[in-house]
Design a protein that fits this description.
By secondary structure, this protein is an alpha/beta fold. It is about 30% helix and about 15% strand. It is built from eight helices and 15 strands. The strands form six sheets. The protein has a five-stranded mixed sheet, with helices on one face. A two-stranded antiparallel ribbon has the order 1-2. Strands 3-6 form a two-stranded parallel sheet.
């Protein structure tokens, strides 16, 4: 006799439990449908992040190990850059800047060209350089930034000849007055000129002051040529004073636009005077912010070729400066030549040439990634090109004495 199977008794409580279970199952099914595309998106996002991290890691390894650029040099892009600054561009032969045909050439309209013969000196061979500009000796692993030469579109610049420049400066004074970027250029010229002097002991600071961490003014004499290369710190070129009584707290100082700097009396007898100012208004080539909001430049290793990074708001100020200088030059035929060395555009493309982390000096390690210097320049580097332009325009008047050169750009 078989036993009867137990019968499940359906009660209102059981029915309620079954309905609740079905509701939960339905909600889980809807949740799965909702999460299915989201999980795919999250997966793609994480995969993308991994790929980007791999690129950064590989780029960092190549940067630290001093990538040799072998692949870059063999590329079509590099060959175009190498040949683009030669004697022809798009089938048009370039003229020499010092020739009569170079009379109308705008030397500031051009681009950066890779040149294996650069730099013109090595920082380790120049003792007249502040340690803050010695990037290679302060840990920068690459030297790419030293290999670029400025090439005007329509003419060729003469190569800087330090001996010829020293002969030009014989028994003369060349004075740089301005901010720390002016000092950057001044130290570049010191190193360029010193490279042609066999006995470095014949070059000295007349007051015995050290070049490192020295403020105020410095005068270096080249004894064999009886010339001085001088620097006077004057960030605004005019007198700076205290804020007036009752001024808002954000006003920290005032500028007397009608009064030249206190040291200006020491400039007036200079044979060549190079002025610069305005660095706080223009500092290109930074990622993630400007010079005072966390901008960085330590991962930059190549210039921006063929484009300008100059902010639009800079040009009105530049136009004002140009108009003032032009008006001053045209006031009298007896006035000394005043022209503008327009390095703004060419420098804006060299985001790779800044000090970034490498300004603490040899053996001091790298600066904090949050305290990068994306304003000043490594030496050798971009300021050497400024001095090549200075050299070219200073000699143009001498090599073309019978031509009308009043319209030519001269950085004095």
């Amino acid at each position: 006799m078989s036993k009867s199977q137990p019968q499940q008794v359906i009660t209102p409580q059981n029915t309620s439990n079954i309905i609740e279970t079905l509701k939960k199952f339905k909600r889980m099914k809807l949740l799965h449908r909702f999460l299915e595309p989201s999980l795919s998106i999250i997966g793609c996002f994480l995969a993308t992040i991994c790929v980007i991290c791999c690129f950064f890691y590989l780029d960092y390894r190549a940067y630290i190990k001093g990538f040799t650029f072998s692949n870059f040099k063999s590329s079509e892009r590099f060959q175009w850059l190498k040949n683009n600054g030669g004697n022809s561009e798009f089938g048009v032969k370039k003229v020499e800047f010092w020739s009569e045909l170079g009379n109308g050439c705008d030397v500031f309209d051009g681009d950066w060209l890779w040149d294996e013969s650069y730099p013109l000196y090595q920082s380790k061979d120049c003792k007249f350089m502040d340690f803050g500009f010695r990037c290679s000796e302060s840990g920068r692993p690459d030297s790419f930034y030293t290999k670029w030469r400025w090439q005007p579109k329509h003419c060729n610049l003469p190569r800087f000849d330090a001996r010829l420049m020293l002969e030009k400066l014989k028994n003369k004074r060349i004075v740089f007055a301005g901010d720390s970027i002016g000092r950057n250029q001044w130290e570049s010229l010191l190193c360029l000129l010193a490279s042609a002097v066999p006995d470095q002991n014949t070059i000295y600071e007349v007051n015995g002051n050290p070049i490192t961490k020295h403020k105020g003014f410095l005068i270096f004499k080249f004894k064999d040529y009886n010339c001085t290369v001088e620097y006077y710190r004057s960030p605004f070129l005019v007198q700076q004073g205290r804020p007036p009584v009752g001024a808002p707290d954000k006003v920290k100082s005032t500028l007397r636009l009608d009064q030249m700097d206190w040291n200006s009396g020491k400039w007036k007898d200079a044979d060549y005077l190079v002025l610069n100012t305005g660095v706080v208004t223009f500092k290109p080539g930074q990622r993630g912010g400007d010079w005072k909001t966390g901008g960085t430049c330590h991962m930059e290793s190549l210039p921006e070729l063929g484009i300008s990074l100059v902010p639009p708001q800079i040009w009105p100020k530049f136009t004002i400066a140009t108009d003032v200088l032009t008006a001053r030059k045209n006031q009298s035929i007896n006035s000394r030549a005043i022209n503008l060395l327009n390095i703004t555009v060419m420098s804006s493309r060299r985001k790779d040439g800044h000090l970034s982390l490498y300004y603490l000096g040899p053996g001091a390690g790298l600066a904090s990634i949050h305290r990068q210097d994306c304003s000043h320049w490594c030496l050798p580097g971009v300021p050497d090109s400024w001095n090549e332009l200075l050299y070219a325009v200073m000699f143009r008047r001498d090599v073309t004495p019978s031509w009308n050169v009043t319209s030519q750009t001269r950085a004095v």
